[in-house]
Amino acid sequence: MNSDSDHELVTSLNRGDKAAFSELMTRHGPAVYRFAWALADEAHQADDLLQETFLVMWKRRHKIVLASESLLPWLLTTCRFTAYNSNRNSRARRTLPLDAAETATSTGAPASAIDELNWVREEIGALGPIDRQLIERCLVEGESYAAAAAALGMSPAAARKRIQRTRIHLGAARIENQ
């Protein structure tokens, strides 16, 4: 199958031909991997991006339209969007624990991040006891709203509303503080 063009391989792939999938991965995998490695926030993500790119190719095999004789541009575009999504998701999950202000300087965190972290801790400390417990349980410790509400003797809807109000209050206080 090695002499087949990408167009012929994509046509075979469209019919569910696993050998065509394998040939496309062998043919374009190294280039996609190098591209993924360049786009990844962390080097270990390159393998995942490569796998995800070819998984998307398999899932969307019926919709692939080649703009040229090669499938590589389609794969690189898919890899780029996969990397952007992965990087955005991992950045959104990166946090600095509220009790880490003392150690943040040793990890090289910017002074502005440490100042903001201290400000957030002070603002949470100034909340009423129920709101403070909700914030600590749900937003700091990651407990579900339902579990925190049950522990504090309220409905999940009431817990969500209190957290929403607290977020609005903190957002307004942050704007005033700037």
From TrEMBL:
InterPro entries registered for this protein in UniProt: RNA_pol_sigma-70-like, RNA_pol_sigma-70_dom, RNA_pol_sigma70_r2, RNA_pol_sigma70_r4_t2, RNA_pol_sigma_r2, RNA_pol_sigma_r3/r4-like, WH-like_DNA-bd_sf
Domain RNA polymerase sigma-70 region, residue spans: 24-91
Domain RNA polymerase sigma factor 70 region 4 type, chain residue ranges per copy: 118-170
Record-level Gene Ontology MF annotations: DNA binding; sigma factor activity
Biological-process GO terms, alphabetical: DNA-templated transcription initiation
Pfam families the record matches: Sigma70_r2, Sigma70_r4_2
Keyword vocabulary terms for this entry: Sigma factor, Transcription, Transcription regulation
Residue stretches spanning the membrane: none
Keyword set includes Transcription regulation: yes
NCBIfam families per record: sigma70-ECF
The family this protein is said to belong to: Belongs to the sigma-70 factor family. ECF subfamily.
Protein name (Swiss-Prot/TrEMBL): Sigma-70 family RNA polymerase sigma factor
Organism per entry: Cryobacterium suzukii
